[in-house]
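Thread: quick sanity check before group meeting

JM: Hey all, I'm pulling together slides for Thursday and realized we never actually wrote out the predicted structure for the chain we discussed last week. Dropping the sequence here so it's in one place. If anyone has concerns about the input, flag it before I start.
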Amino acid sequence: MFDISGSELVSFEGSDTVVSVPVGVTRIGDDAFFECSHIAEIILPEGVTEIGARAFWGCEALERIKLPATLRRVGDNAFRSCGALREIAFPEGVTEVGEAVMRGCSQLEKVSLPETLKSLGMSMFADCYNLVQITLPTGLESIGASCFHWCLNLTEIDIPKGVRVLENRTFSGCSGLRRVGLPSGLREIGDGCFEGCGRLVTLDVPQSVERIGAGAFYKCGVMDAHGEFIRLGRVLVGYNGGENAVVPGGVEIIGEHAFAYDEKLKSVQLPEGVTAVEDYAFESCTALERVTLPQSLKRLGKGAFSQCAALAEAVLPSGLERIGADILQGSAVQIAQDRYLLSYAGAEENVCVSEGVRVVADDAFARCTGVRSVAFPEGLLTVGDGALRWCRQLEKIQLPSTVTYIGDAAFASSRQPLVTIEDAQGYLGDNAFPAGAVLDVKICGRRVKVKLLRAVRSGSCAEQRLWEFAKEPCEKSFLQIGEREYMIACAAALFGCGGWYESYLQENIVAAVCYAAQQDIPTLERVLSFGLLELEQLGECIDFTTKNKLVHQQVILMRYRHEQFDSAQSAAQRFEL
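JM (edit): ok, ran it. Output follows.
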């Protein structure tokens, strides 16, 4: 009946409708009861700590299951499509639940979640049509995309204060939803988040919300409960007025597609205080002729005025910090590129961006396959997302000390370029530099060269920690880098600037010499000049160069041995004689 390996229940075969899992099992394996459609009740013993992925998927007759107090983790799709299950209680102590754990439990009415749970996986309760009400843990920090998608009978829900983002389609299709309590610290409402929530006619959106995604309230009751301007918190999400729109004060963000496809709109005036126009905000407003943008504007999103064929008058304010791709694609208006470089269509191999340019827009050089080097001027603030991605011949990049934003995929797919940076500061985006890129950055007045082993990623990766060290060099940030090759490169270049560099090299001198031998002769000679090698350690380094056929480096190490050890030993012998 049971296939048990160690303490894991691997699989079950039998016709019993009530199944008692044996005592001693601590893990219900992946797919253990997959599509056991005849089982009505499962009894799990205390001691079970984990339920694997798809463990009970398709147990269509399952009506009762009591989860043990010892449970800590529940895998993806664990109870998916258990169509007869009406209630379930996750015990205190559960810290991890995967994606789509309860998806398709169409009769599920009651759920109890523990206070120990910090996140809900993507689509966790999607298609739970009968779920009426649920209380989320007060310490919850994240809710996955489509978590409550098509919970048709869900009527109300309060989002805990620790949640900062409502992901895409979190409540899409919840046609019975009437009340949602949003926390004061919420920053973002994702694409299609409340799409199809027709009974949701009022919603108090906190002032902390900075972004409302495309279609977040499509076919939602709140879109029908406003007048000319549809505003949620600080964000303008829609417009139902006439040809000339004068946006009222208090609006700070023009949301995605807020005015899009309004074919009657001829002019728009945005008030001071507006800081962002999001992606495609005015897309395909084919009659739009004139736009007045405020000096407070900091960000113009992708395609903001794309396909506005009649647009002839628009002046970009002087304080813009981010400009999306194709903001004027298909529009007639011409914008001088003395301050903002929107796109580049030249054929030069070596590009020097003009003095005075402060912002390079997203995708500005994308697919300029002939560019081999690019130098940005002092005063530049922003290199946009994907600005030089797919420039596969790009070998040299020169960035000034003033840059504070290097966007996501800014130099992705380039040819392992040499990146010269005067002073590291500000944001470094996901995949900004590719694996193999060599960062040449000034730290504590010295040039430090580090070859990246991997592409830069968002979050806490060694490459980001290296960037943080370059921004604020100190013992703590140095030790947090964590990647030995990066730390050796930094310590070798900064030897003498702080005791922690000397200590680190002393402890890792063999690795440091071997690393230097693979770089170049000057680096090897510099590391040797510190005088940290013992004779036995030197032997390991010589063996390394022999094994890797580094002939010139081997000669240097053998000469070093002769000068530092053989000569000293001979002198000692002569002294004894």
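AS: nice. The chain is about 15% helix and 20% strand. Residues 383 and 406 are 5 Å apart (CA to CA).
JM: adding both to the slides.
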